[in-house]
């Protein structure tokens, strides 16, 4: 059974939230490619839509959107995800994972692409904690 850690970024306020997903919710991610959208209810964000932006496998290899499939491939890179050159023109052969989410995927990175009627803080129950902090200042 697949088990993922989904890291959801909110580009509007710059926050990130981590969710551990397994079982039926994890199956919603299986077979999707980077750049595709998935329903936010898989991580408890009902009414939201998540865009898959990246991830890594059990060994820490990054996923690249320009590598097809779910397997591990050795590609010659001049920069981008998985390799940052130190000199102009430098290239390196790096092992990366393809753009399809599979059983070997451990972490999935996503961002909020469509918003729901409730705020993220309300759905996660974080607003009650913030209001408690305001009463301590008095």
Describe this structure in words.
This protein is mainly beta and 138 residues long. It has one domain (3-124). The protein contains 3 helices and 7 strands. It has helices at 24-27, 120-124, 127-136; strands at 3-10, 15-22, 37-39, 49-57, 72-77, 92-97, 105-114. A 5-stranded mixed sheet has the order 2-1-7-4-3. Strands 5-6 form a two-stranded antiparallel sheet. The protein starts with a strand and ends with a helix.
Characteristic terms for this protein:
single chain; 138 residues; mainly beta; five-stranded mixed sheet; two-stranded antiparallel sheet; 7 strands; 14% helix; 36% strand; globular
Mean pLDDT: 89
> Which structural class is indicated by helix and strand composition?
mainly beta
Task: Please estimate the helix content.
Answer: 10-25%
Query: Which overall shape is indicated by the principal axes computed on the Cα atoms?
Result: globular
Unreliable sequence segments: none
Q: Give helix and strand order, one letter per element, not per position.
A: EEHEEEEEHH
Give me the count of strands: 7
Task: Please give the largest β-sheet.
Answer: 5 strands, mixed
Query: Any idea how many domains?
Result: 1
The neighbouring-strand order within the major sheet is 2-1-7-4-3
How large is the count of helical segments?
3
Gyration radius from CA atoms, angstroms: 18 Å
Multimer state: single chain
* Beginning-to-end CA distance, first to last residue: 50 Å
Range of strand content? 35-45%
């Amino acid at each position: 059974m697949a088990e993922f850690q989904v890291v959801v970024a909110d580009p509007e306020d710059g926050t990130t939230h981590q969710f551990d997903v397994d079982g039926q919710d994890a199956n919603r991610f299986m077979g999707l490619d980077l750049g595709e959208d998935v329903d936010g209810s898989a991580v408890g964000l009902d009414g939201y839509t998540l865009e898959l932006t990246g991830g890594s496998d059990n060994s820490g290899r990054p996923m690249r959107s320009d590598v097809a499939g779910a397997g591990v491939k050795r590609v010659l890179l001049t920069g981008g995800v998985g390799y940052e050159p130190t000199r102009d023109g430098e290239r390196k052969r790096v092992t990366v994972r393809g753009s399809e989410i599979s059983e070997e995927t451990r972490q999935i990175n996503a961002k909020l692409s469509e918003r729901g009627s409730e705020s993220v803080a309300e759905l996660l129950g974080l607003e009650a904690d913030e209001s408690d902090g305001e009463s301590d200042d008095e």
